[in-house]
Structures are given as C-alpha cells and as structure tokens.
Design a protein that fits this description.
The protein folds into 2 domains: 234 residues, ABC transporter type 1, transmembrane domain (ABC transporter transmembrane region fold, Up-down Bundle), CATH 1.20.1560.10; 242 residues, 3-Layer(aba) Sandwich (Rossmann fold), CATH 3.40.50.300. With 549 residues, it is an alpha/beta fold. Helix content is 64%, strand content 11%. Helix 1 runs parallel beside helix 4, helix 2 packs antiparallel against helix 4 and helix 7 packs antiparallel against helix 8. Strand 7, helix 16 and strand 8 form a beta-alpha-beta unit. The radius of gyration is 36 Å and the shape is elongated. A 6-stranded mixed β-sheet has the order 6-7-8-3-9-10, sandwiched between helices. A 4-stranded antiparallel β-sheet has the order 2-1-4-5, with helices on one face.
Length: 549
Amino acid sequence: MLIYNLSVIVFSWCFKLITDSLIDKEYTAFSRYILLSVFVVIVQASGHYIYIKGKTGYIKAEMMRIKSGFIKSIFNYDVSYFMNRDKSEYQSFLFHDLNIYEQKILSGKFELAEKLVLMILSTVAIMMINIDFVVLVVLLALVSVIIPLLFGKTVKKLNTLLTRTNSKSMEKFDEMLDGFITLRTFSVEDRGINECETAAGDNENAKMKYSLVMAVFQSALILVTTVFTLMIFIWGGQSVIREVITVGELIALIQLLFNVEGPLMGVMTALGNIKAAKPIADKYAEFVSAGRNDGDEDFNLNDKIRVEHLYFGYSDKTPLILNDINCEFEKGKKYAIVGENGSGKSTLLKVLAGVNDIHSYKGKINIDGTERKKIKDTGFWKNVSYLPQQVFLFKDTIAENIFMSGKRESDETYLELAASLDTLRLVKDDGENKTGELSGGERQRIAFLREMLKGSSVIMADEPDSALDIETGDRIRDIMLGCDKTCIVVTHRIGAFLAGFDKILVMAGGKIVEAGTYDSLMGKNGFFRDICLREKNKYSDREAEAGMI
C-alpha cells in the first residue's frame, strides 16, 4: 500500500518536472523526466498488484475465519437454542449478510487505510509546494465530515431494514417451496406466488429506499467535489499569474489536491459503510457468543426420570400446551404416550428431550434426582436417542447414514436389526446420494436403525411407524419392547398394539388423564377405552379379525 501511494505522489511530481522543462524548453531534462515517469508507472503498477494480492489474501483468510467461527458456533448450540431460530435466518446471514460484511467492513477498512495514507502523503507534498493551498484541504475535510454525519443514522437504519427484509423474504420463499405440493394439489398456487411476491416487494422497497438515500449522499459529495475543483483552478490560476507558483507546480497541486479530495470522499464513504454494516457485526457477535446454555452435571439414569408439575407453552401470549404433567419413566421399561391430535403428546416428548427450549418450561424434570436443565448437553445426547416425526437423512450413501456411531456392516447387532427391518437389501444396493431414492417408509426404517445402533440407554421416538405398513410397524414395536433401553414412544396407533408396553400415558388437553397397562386401562371403561372403540370403528371387520385392534 505504501509503495503504491508513494508512487502516486511521485508521479504527480513528475508532471511538475515535465511541464516546467517544456516551458523552459529544456528538452534533455524533458526526456529524462519522461523516463523517470515510465519507471514510476512500472513501480506503481507493481506496487498495486502486490497490494491487491495481499489484500485479497487477507480478506479470504479473515472471511474463512469468520465463517468458520459462525458455523462452529451454530453446531455448538444446544438443541433447543438452535431450534428457536428458523434455518433461513442462518442461511441468510451466512450467504447474504456476511457478503455485505466483507464488502463494507473488511474491504472498507482497507479502503479507509489506503485513502488516509494517500491523503496524508498528498497533504505533505502540497505543503512542500505552497502551504497556502492547505487551507483548501482543511475546508474540504470539514465539509466531507459534515455530510456523512447528516446521513449516518438514516443509512444505518435503512441497512438494518434491508437485512431484516432480506431474511424474511428468504424465509417466506423457503416456506412456500416446502409447501409446493400442498399449493399445487389444492390449486392455490396464487397464494404462494402472492406471498413470495409480497416478501420480495418488501425487500426491493427496502433496497430502493437505501439506494435513494445513498444516491442523495453521493450527489452531495459530487457537488462538493465539483465546487472544490473550480476553487483549485481559480486560486491556482491567480497564483501562477502572480508568479507565486509555476505552471508545473499548479498541475502538480491540482493532481495532489485531487489525491486529497477523492480519497477524502472515499474515507467518508468507507466510514459510512462500516457504520451502516455495524448491525451485521453485532449480529455475528450474538451468534458466536451464544454457545451452549449448558449444565454441568453428568447424565446418569440408574433409577428413573421423574416429571413433576410440568407446564409448557411456546410464549406467554399463547395457551399452555402442557398443563401440570406428572409422571415417571423407570429405567429399562417401555412407555407409550397416546392421545388424539393436539393433546400435547409430541410436545411432551420434545420437552423431555430438550428439543424445545429446555429453559422455558416450568416444573421439574429430574433424571435420578438431577434437574434436566443442569445436565450437560453432550452427556444427555450421548445417552439419549431422539427420533422425530420428520426423519432426516444426509444426501449421502445409506451406509454413511446408518453407521454414524462407528459400527460397520459386520456388527452382529446391525445384522440382526437390519434383517428384521428389511434394510440389508437397501445397503447392498447402496450408492452416492442413494437416500434420495428411498420411500418415506424406507427412510423411517433407516432412521430408526441408526438410532438403535447409537448405543444410547434411552430412546424417545415420535411416531416411529407413521410411514410404515402395519407389519413393519409391529416389528419396530417388538424391537423396542425387546431391547434393554428405556423407551418412550409417542404413537397414533391405539388398541392391542399397545399391550406389550409397561405403561401407557393417555393425554387430552395437555394433561395426562389416564395411565396404566393396556389391560388395566381397557378395564376402567374410561377415556382410553372410548378412543380405542372409536378407532376400532374406523377399520373393517377384516382388519379387526386380523388382530389390529
């Protein structure tokens, strides 16, 4: 940077020497100064290349450090904290906001340093020629400082608005793409189009407002530049007429004053950009400082998980989803949570697992006497397998999706489970991104197999057979009932399917209204028996005779 800027100043001085030698008709000196100018240009070009190469390398390394820190921070969040944000917010920040950060802050700081050095060197050179011209430099600096101050707050506010609307438009577009099949099958594509266009329109309006304010800002700077250019020629011309300076010195002064004027405007713009992008820097600091809201106790389940007076709602403004839940889950036993849609059974499982914000529930979840909130996140997930309704598989081979715990195809447990679930043939026909060819039921079987191989002591499964046929669903149930793990299963299946579980928790309206074995509940002639009978009426006599109910 210094070599490049020095060469710019020397080149301006070469203009003085060349012009004065021509006026004095010193042609030998003229030729010498031309050669000097060529050498300076070569040095200037070389210095500029070296500077840009170093600048680009630094920005690349710094952006990798920043992006790596952001990505590591996200994957270090506890599950509940991660789930509190929409994934589009992470995507928008990584691929949009950080690009703005690179352009306005990292590149802006280089531009700021580059322009400041050029301004200082040019001012020193001006003082060497004629110190009176420094007055113009001071006036230009004062005006250039005032203009950004007038626009600073507005630019920052609009940049924040632009970032927010961009995130919302990405979130809305992502939502409508996920809902494509629903929109198409209901012939309401216009809803998706309208909502996406509205979100995109809000984003474009924010961009236009920002661009218009920046246009006014740039126009003000251009006006100042034009006025000062005219002042330079007026004052400089009068100085030549009075023989205070030579024509060559006037040309050098004009060049040097441009080297102050342009960079000064650049400094003000860079400062404005850095200030406008500060919300992105603040947001980055928020992301990387969040970390895990972790406990310091180890996970130990030698006795039971006890839930006492548990309350949970997604916000203070919405009704409670779980209302005074009291229950126990003993080590090694099998539990089924049943209830009609909206009863709170899946929410209860999520709160137990900590998938919802574990710090927002009220009441107690004690694991061998240790409050769930105080247990280390890593220790909890090492010992707990959680299978959500919407299973996730990586876009990779089936084997890579199954053997995340380090076990391989030769493992006896795997071979036994895979044979029972009929997944051996899938792995045998494996290939890159083979998971994209799997049906919903096949994906569910692979995900279940993966969790069973994890080596955890507790399984929490939310309708693990929802995409499966009855026979395969029965096999999954039998696998859980036959293992030595503590199993807590949310299921939509009602009836004799539940006979093997040690206890069934029946939920309605966010409460556990009944609990017991299948036989004891059927003998009570209560709520569970009622929903079993209602469910039975949905199926044909053939299905009933087959033992489904």
